[in-house]
Amino acid sequence: MAHRQHQISTPDAPQGRRVSSRFPAALMATAASGLLLGACSWMPGVQFISNNETAAPAGGSIGTVVADEPQAALIGHDVLARGGNAADAATATALALGVTLPSRASFGGGGACLVSRPGEPAQAITFLPRPGTSKGGDRPAGTAAEFRGLYLMQLHYGTVDFNDLVAPALNLASTGITVSRTLAADLAAVRPALLADDNARAIFGRGEATTVAAGDSLAQPRLAGFLERIRVAGVGDLYNGALADVYVTAAQKAGGGLNDEDMRQTLPVQTATLTTRQGGVDASFLAPPADGGLGAALRYTTGASAQGAVAAWRASGNTTLAAAQAALDSGHSGNGTLPALPASTSFVVTDHSGMAVACAVSENNLFGTGRIAGSTGVVLGASPARTPQPLLSAAVLRDQRNLRAVIAASGQNEAADAVGDAARAAAHDTPIPHEGAGRINAILCHGNDSCRGSTDPCAAGLAAGTTNDSRN
Which Pfam families did the record assign (predicted)? Predict the structure, then answer.
């Protein structure tokens, strides 16, 4: 089978209409416990106009957003309510997570998304940070890959202006968020090391020895200024313009070792997905370089260990999509072990038209390097040269043209196994298992108009839908 792959360079002009590091081991992720919240919707002071003429069906579901952090899920759901599609909502959710969950989803990191539309082959968009190449930094950072990846996804699949989707995150950073249980748990896990950095302490600290707690208000004015610059000057400014110079200079002062060329060369990749068909169900999984998708796919088809499959894949030296698809088709999973992997977070989105998006993002360490890129307010992601690659895992299942399930997970070493097990359960209409450290966010459907969101009962996420979508 032929596979397509291409990269995109983000234009420098403002966008309008579309034409481990040495950070201490204590910063590795710990699972947050919490509560599945009820669905509601709120976007403070934000207006946007959709380019999509199709309105959401009266009285029907506009779609569902499920994420590990409730405020970000609400932002995504409001985008659906205002006429955006799943790609628009996923973009807004990811940008909001950069404000509400900067421990795992800061703009200094990267990730991967799977996009599926009815009747079309699904696509994977992968946006992984590059290691900095400048010498002398004591806390090596990776490049900020997320904005270019999200821009590529929204350019190809979205229906509203990208700038309109930056506005909700900007608003949250400026007016303040309520610290969630998830962010509070992450802060508690890394408190002493994070507070050692003056800039990080100025944002997240409460005095010299404590951090903000769940329920506290947290404003991030410097991050708001960074987002305003992107909203006005465009995403390209972060990679080819004046904002790139600001970001690189700040990263160097924070020991990150980045330079302008590192930012220019940070390019997202769009490919076909890994695919398999069993029992009349077509399943698509994230493809390399997001190799957690291969592990999840082999877990789904064979029941083998996803961790073992990915360990064998990484040891083989193979990197191509064709080789990964061949491994999946053969059912040869291999075995091996992986070191402790970085923290991540995930989210899934559907809309009324049957489009589905599933994403996982990471900073290659909890709170990345633990340092802030100066006046930008961005938490610097850790260099991929110093940490193992996270298991970015997601899947979409369809029965003929109908959506069956949209699945993504975090949970470090167990994320891919969790996606594979959830996909097997969805294919057989059995309850999704919630065992081990894997944390599943899923949307399960019986026909495109009957979908419900599901968060992991051990997490503190939110499933935001229009009817009873949030019930497990």
Answer: G_glu_transpept (PF01019)
